[in-house]
Design brief:
Length: about 350
């Protein structure tokens, strides 16, 4: 009985203190917290603003003003980090308060050293992206990451983690995201991070996954393909030096073909036909594209045949054309696709496919 009574008194006392504290803090006084240039005072004011901003006993409007002051002060401290971590990933938080907290997160992280607050702030942003959130909050989090992340060097683990959080955001919202999302996505992840991200997503995504999971695979594959297209010349120029990294990227893409999801199959197959025609790349992907045939889907059969026709300089490509198309296909368009080559006679083409002449051998 005594323990219960003491606990009740403690709860009432805490509520009383919070009420008094909130009543004493006015909108004007909270806004004025940012109006100082003295460093010691700024740190003290940030601590007070953080207490208000993270307090559920204060009104939503007062807390929003506190977050504005924190964003203007741009002071990083354990108190500020705790308040951010309490509000930004909290899907039950008031929308206005949460949006102001996300804005403050980006402002506090702007130009902040990675070792010295930047990484911790980026971790809060990632937790926010993984939570349930409105489209407005989601886009503000992307803007916050744009202020915190790109100007620093990162490990592959950090890059892959940030990419996966952004990739999950794309899967949540069916509407087209604005250009800043794709700008941030490209600045966040390099070839290695994108390949690692796609590989991780494929590991945890079941073949009979739902629409959101499929969108994650699709989005990750698309981001990797776009990066390969943007960097195609340096990829080929540095192939021998970065062979393992490049092979990993293309193998992740061919692994995505195993999901047999039509949109993904058509996009990846067509893109690989464009991007992997160099024999060094063709050797990595030709066998996987050949495994798509025969196909009852006319569009997939045509696109696969077109891609394989670009890989006829490698053994796996020629074998797939011979075994999967010339011996099996009854589609005139598909047969014409692989047999007729501009600037060459049909017999020369057949000879090259069967390795009967030196032309086309690499």
């Amino acid at each position: 009985m005594s323990t219960s009574f003491s606990l009740a008194r403690l709860v009432l006392y805490t509520a009383f203190v919070l009420g008094v504290f909130s009543a004493c803090a006015t909108h004007d006084s909270v806004r004025m917290l940012a109006e100082t240039h003295d460093e010691e005072q700024r740190v003290s004011n940030a601590a007070e603003a953080a207490r208000i901003a993270g307090s559920w006993g204060a009104s939503s409007t007062l807390r929003a003003h506190a977050w504005k002051s924190l964003g203007r002060l741009r002071v990083y401290s354990p108190n500020v980090l705790r308040a951010l971590d309490r509000v930004v990933p909290n899907s039950d938080e008031d929308e206005e308060v949460r949006r102001h907290a996300i804005w403050a997160l980006g402002e506090i992280g702007r130009e902040r050293p990675w070792i010295g607050g930047g990484k911790e702030l980026n971790d809060v942003a990632i937790k926010g992206l993984k939570s349930a959130l409105s489209r407005a909050c989601a886009l503000q989090l992307v803007e916050a990451i744009a202020k915190i992340y790109p100007q620093h060097s990162h490990s592959s683990e950090e890059a892959a983690e940030t990419f996966m959080a952004l990739n999950g955001l794309q899967a949540k919202f069916k509407e087209q995201l604005p250009g800043i999302y794709y700008t941030v996505l490209r600045s966040v992840a390099d070839l290695q991070a994108l390949a690692d991200g796609l590989a991780r997503i494929l590991e945890v995504t079941k073949k009979d996954a739902g629409e959101e999971e499929k969108m994650r695979v699709y989005g990750a594959a698309l981001a990797l393909l776009r990066t390969i297209e943007d960097k195609q010349e340096p990829i080929l120029a540095n192939f021998d030096v970065q062979r393992a990294r490049i092979t990993h990227a293309f193998e992740a893409l061919t692994q995505s073909l195993e999901y047999r999801e039509r949109r993904l199959l058509l996009m990846v197959t067509w893109s690989l036909g464009r991007l992997a025609s160099d024999p060094r790349l063709g050797r990595i992907v030709a066998g996987s594209i050949g495994d798509l045939l025969p196909s009852e889907d006319p569009a997939l059969a045509f696109v696969s045949a077109w891609a394989l026709s670009r890989f006829d300089g490698v053994t796996a490509g020629r074998e797939a054309i011979r075994e999967k198309i010339l011996k099996s296909s009854v589609d005139a368009q598909v047969l014409r696709m692989v047999v007729v080559r501009e600037g060459a006679e049909g017999l020369d083409r057949i000879q090259s496919l069967y390795g009967m002449s030196l032309e086309g051998q690499r």
